[in-house]
Design goal:
about 300 residues, alpha/beta, Arc Repressor Mutant, subunit A, D-Maltodextrin-Binding Protein, domain 2, 3 domains, 7-stranded mixed sheet, two-stranded antiparallel ribbon, LysR_HTH_N, transcription
């Protein structure tokens, strides 16, 4: 059996499938535009490699043996995979064109998508991408309602119902005013911040829900003094001394040299977050959407 990988070729498998489907060697040969003797020789080679019969020849055709049924099942899977690979590769050789609608949460748009979409555009200039910002919960809803080709969000309740690919990961940090009592700390625990007032994002954002959940786990209630709709506004509110804020670390780093703020990494394990690509089913993606999903899913 160890010789199968080296000696069993795709042509033999394709002819064997034709024989099984036609239940007749002559008809299979006619369908594949090859001599019946050549088909018989290929079947004999398969049987010699396996050491067991895969078909039984009869006066009016053939029957497939239990061994042959097993070979047939795997042959169909192998041929199907080759055909799928060919279809995907043809998207590259023929040039991908079209429009793709993507919904993504704020964290992915602010941190990663601008550069990734720009890089994709250089490789596939004929694909137009429509990108819309939504909360993670709304990303799932819109994709489920076929309002977008796919979405990018944090793993939240309901995301397990979708096909997923990992996209990126980030780490949360706390942004505090320059004169804050913890401004000189190297890193902090979330529990140490629960006596402070927070500036937060919209209540439906994945980040807000995460913070509320973690505060509740510590037996506390998150004291949100005000809510804003963007991470930029969040950082400016901290600069003005209106509260502290939990932000993705790369976002906070953009402001530490321009505003009077300090960025302190969170020591909690849950502060490391993952972003995922979600879609209903890969086979339902258009050619352009499938290529964009593969491109984004391959980012480091």
């Amino acid at each position: 059996m160890e010789n199968l990988l080296k000696k069993l070729d795709l042509t033999s498998l394709r002819l064997f499938v034709a024989v099984c489907q036609e239940r007749n060697i002559a008809r299979a040969a006619q369908r594949e535009f090859i001599a019946s003797s050549a088909v018989s020789r290929r079947i004999a080679e398969i049987e010699a490699l396996i050491g067991l019969p895969v078909i039984q020849r009869q006066s009016r055709g053939i029957t497939v043996t239990p061994v042959g049924e097993t070979v047939l099942r795997y042959a169909l899977a192998i041929i199907g995979n080759i055909e799928q690979m060919s279809a995907e590769l043809s998207r590259f050789s023929a040039g991908v064109k079209g429009r793709v609608r993507v919904v993504a949460n704020l964290s992915s748009i602010v941190q990663f998508l601008p550069e990734d979409v720009a890089a994709f555009g250089r490789a596939f200039p004929d694909v137009s991408i429509e990108l819309e910002e939504e909360s993670s919960a709304d990303v799932l809803r819109i994709v489920d309602e076929h309002g977008a080709d796919f979405g990018i969000c944090n793993p939240v309740a309901g995301s397990e119902a979708f096909e997923q690919l990992p996209y990126r990961q980030d780490r949360l940090a706390v942004l505090v005013p320059g004169g804050h009592r913890l401004a000189g700390a190297a890193r902090v625990n979330f529990d140490d911040l629960l006596h402070d007032g927070f500036v937060g994002l919209r209540s439906e954002s994945a980040l807000t829900r995460l913070l509320v959940q973690q505060a509740a786990s510590a037996g506390r209630q998150l004291d949100v003094r005000m809510r804003v709709s963007s991470l930029d506004a969040l950082c400016r509110m901290v600069h003005a001394g209106l509260g502290i804020a939990i932000v993705p670390e790369p976002v906070g780093l953009l402001y530490v040299n321009t505003l009077d703020v300090r960025l302190l990494p969170l020591a909690d394990a849950w502060a490391e977050r993952h972003l995922i690509i979600v879609f209903k089913a890969r086979e339902q993606l258009s050619a352009s959407a499938a290529v964009l999903v593969s491109f984004l899913g391959s980012q480091p």
